[in-house]
Amino acid sequence: MLEGRLQLIEQRKVLKPMKTMAYETAIQAIKEKIKTGEWKAGDRLPTVQQLAVELSLGISTVREALRILENQRIVSIEHGRGMYLRNDPLLLEDPTTTLEQLGNISLVSLLEARLLIEPELAALCAKHATASQIQQLRYLADQMVVQMQKGGDFFETDIAFHQLIAEGSNNPVLIRMMSMITPISVEARKQTNTIPNMRTKASNYHVLIAIAMEERHAEQAKMLMEAHIQEMLRMFIK
Predict the structure, then answer these.
(1) Residue 206 contacts residue 140 (beta carbons within 8 Å)
(2) Exposed/middle/buried for 104, CB within 10 Å: 0-12, 13-18, 19+?
(3) What per-residue confidence (pLDDT) applies to 139?
(4) End-to-end CA distance of the chain, in Å?
(5) Do 64 and 23 meet the contact criterion of CB atoms below 8 Å apart?
(6) What burial letters (b/e) apply to 89-102, b meaning 16+ CB within 10 Å?
(7) Which residues sit opposite 75 in a β-bridge?
(8) Is there a contact between 23 and 68 (Cβ–Cβ < 8 Å)?
(9) Which Pfam families match (predicted)?
């Protein structure tokens, strides 16, 4: 079944255009307001309409950004009362601080940790992700194929794909866990992407995972994510 899916990917000639990831611009702008102290813990935030005007973005884009920030436990959306910046002492904590205390972490250790977390995230995402998130995951997967075929770098697209799966799981605890390992995952991907044929395999796996998400096949999404990480892990375990 997996081999057949991979063949279908290779046969695809045209990739449909999708929307630009404008919500990421909104997320960064909001986080910047928090970092600079313009918005403080407990503050009531402007309405979606006001933020859309202030950020020069569409209302649907701002809503998507706020939903992601709510999943990340950064904002609280209380229907009928408004939106608030969470009064959470961990809000502005740098997740790399804890990691630095662990010393040097091997790539094998990181991949083993990802193997425990990300397949479950994929299954949960297939069950709970919004239609918009599913659409965005497919866009990112297709972008990786295009970037790989052109010989370009799909590093940022790869990171965004896995982050969006975490957000789509709708599980604040697992989202927090992923945010803790993301900084070292960034460095690790620079190494795994240099493995021969890994770029092609990674882009193909991402499309398969996105298709499983579209079809809401949680077990298949889990299996594919596990196979994807195992593929990388085998290269480093002799």
Answers:
(1) yes
(2) exposed
(3) 92
(4) 28
(5) yes
(6) eeeeeebeeeeeee
(7) 85
(8) yes
(9) FCD, GntR
The DSSP line for 200-223 is: HHHHHHHHHHHHHHHTT-HHHHHH
Structure confidence by residue, pLDDT tens digits, 130-184: 999 999 999 999 988 888 777 766 777 888 899 899 989 998 888 888 877 776 7
- Distance in angstroms (rounded) separating the CA atoms of residues 100 and 88: 22
Distance of CA 72 to the CA centre of its chain: 12
Tell me if residue 63 falls in helix, strand or coil: helix
- Sign of the C-alpha dihedral, residues 12, 17, 20, 23? negative
**88 pLDDT exceeds 60?**
no
Torsion angle (degrees, nearest 10) of CA 206, 141, 133, 21: 150
